[in-house]
């Protein structure tokens, strides 16, 4: 059985979406990051970086396995099941390319923008300006990709889309006001958001954890 350590955030939801897509049984262990539960010593054994998401798979090949970092978890689950990541060739590396683009770019930049423009009580105009510009640029990159390809990795829905969906949705909701101009005239991005959001497993994954 897989245990998912997660919270009500985009990074956590990437993994609940993936587990729902795969139909794998899993138990949810909510880590309330607003109450610093990510710093509990027991959690450090699972996630040495003190962040969600993390999983433990007690039926992994070779014995129980704990994994942190959403990209590593998505890749692990894809390889465990042979789904949502092509096994070889260009299609595999296109998928990994866009997965890593999300993990290293879209996620961190939107995360910083959310902090400075939405959650922080102090106003830091330079930071808001910097991360709005970067989010704008990244959403433009996404629009260009999705104008030429149905999904981020290529023709098929993959872990690249699963990683990008919760953050892109947050860009249009939580950050919708600050990113309004950046979200205009992006028909391919909105078409993709609607298509991915219409998947029943995505809707189920987006409501984990129940708190
Ligand atoms: N690169 C990590 C980022 C994980 C991350 O930033 N998690 C946030 C929630 S979305 C967290 O646990 N924050 C708690 C903290 O910063 O103390 C991943 O993709 O898994």
Would you spell out the secondary-structure blueprint of this structure?
Layout: E1 2-6, H1 10-22, E2 26-30, H2 41-46, E3 54-57, E4 65-68, H3 70-81, H4 89-119, H5 125-148, H6 159-172, H7 180-183, H8 187-197, H9 200-205
Parallel strand pairs: 1-2
Antiparallel strand pairs: 1-3, 3-4
Bound molecules: glutathione (GSH).
Residues 9-11, 33, 38, 50-53, 69-71, 103 line the site of glutathione (GSH).
Describe the overall structure.
The protein is an alpha+beta fold. It has two domains: 2-83, Glutaredoxin, CATH 3.40.30; 89-200, Glutathione S-transferase Yfyf (Class Pi), Chain A, domain 2, CATH 1.20.1050. Helices cover 57% and strands 9% of the residues. It has helices at residues 10-22, 41-46, 70-81, 89-119, 125-148, 159-172, 180-183, 187-197, 200-205; strands at 2-6, 26-30, 54-57, 65-68. It has a four-stranded mixed beta sheet with strand order 2-1-3-4, covered by helices on one side. A hairpin with a 7-residue loop joins β3 (54-57) and β4 (65-68). The two termini are 22 Å apart. Glutathione is lined by residues 9-11, 33, 38, 50-53, 69-71, 103.
